[in-house]
Amino acid sequence: MVNPRLIFVVSEALRFLVNAELTGSFGGLTPADQQLKSLAKILREIMALREIIILPDKQLRLVSKPIEKVTTEIRKLADDMFETMYDAPGIGLAAIQIAQPLRLITMDLAKRDEDGESQPRPRVFINPEIVSSSEETSVYEEGCLSIPEYYEEVERPAQVRIRFTDLDGKVHEEDADGLFATCIQHEIDHLNGVLFVDYLSKLKRDRVLKKFTKAAKRAAE
Ligand code: K1U
Ligand code: ZN
């Protein structure tokens, strides 16, 4: 039987390699660096479906870094995020939810028809910002892939104007309302280390945190 500790160490080493490649951390000066970089590239091609990190993982509280240039690596990350988001399934995903602290969001709010089928409508938001928010608010029962099977009503501005960059590096401004407004605010919160449970009463927030902390401890035993 394979030692579970060995699996953990190897998977952490692979994750480190892939992250280093994605964030451009390899110096690329020595032949060893070049070899590691090539290995990481091959591994990243294979590892399209990423693990979604779950509360109370501290990485969810990080403030993600702006993306300076839309590179092949960023496009590949967006592809992996779609694969992970559709598989979950979810309607949105922030890069930090797959342990990548970059200001990148994927979303698909396509409506399903009577047969439960829908035409995919994938959207990518790079370095998204809220330019303005309405006074009017709306309430939506939100969920979060990092807090599975927990839903609560959250009140947010009903309309927001957003600015973001697309995968071609083009900057856009757009008005959002309805579920789009709710979802983009939820995802931008992720980029700032904010979770929807932060809008709940202390009692509810503490209860959910306790539940997920216990579950994480049990899983680690
Ligand atoms: O960011 C996330 O954790 C994804 C989250 C997005 C979101 C949902 C609801 C309100 C605001 C933001 C989800 O996708 S939770 C799953 C979900 O809502 C869903 C899943 C399958 C079909 C329809 C909805
Ligand atoms: Zn979420």
Provide a descriptive summary of the structure in words.
The chain has helices at residues 4-22, 31-46, 72-87, 178-191, 202-220; strands at 92-94, 104-108, 122-133, 137-142, 152-157, 160-165, 171-176. The chain has 221 residues and is an alpha+beta fold. It has 2 domains: 4-40; 62-220, Peptide deformylase (Peptide Deformylase, Alpha-Beta Complex). The protein has a 5-stranded antiparallel sheet. A two-stranded antiparallel sheet has the order 4-5. A hairpin with a 5-residue loop joins strand 6 (160-165) and strand 7 (171-176). Helix 1 (4-22) crosses helix 2 (31-46). The model has no long low-confidence stretch (mean pLDDT 89). Residues 89-94, 140, 142-146, 182-183, 186-187, 190 line the site of ligand K1U.
Integer count of domains: 2
- Which small-molecule species are bound to the chains here? ligand K1U, zinc ion
CATH names the topology of the largest domain as Peptide Deformylase
Taking the sheet with the most strands, its summary is: 5 strands, antiparallel
Q: Strand pairing plus helix content: what structural class?
A: alpha+beta
Mean pLDDT metric: 89
- How many β strands by DSSP? 7
Which architecture name of the largest domain does CATH use? Alpha-Beta Complex
Just give the CATH class of the largest domain. Answer: Alpha Beta
* Head-to-tail CA distance between termini: 19 Å
- The poorly predicted ranges are none
Strand proportion: 15-25%
Instruction: Supply the CATH superfamily name of the largest domain.
Output: Peptide deformylase
Question: What spatial order of strands do you see in the largest sheet?
Answer: 1-2-3-6-7
H/E element sequence: HHHEEEEEEEHH
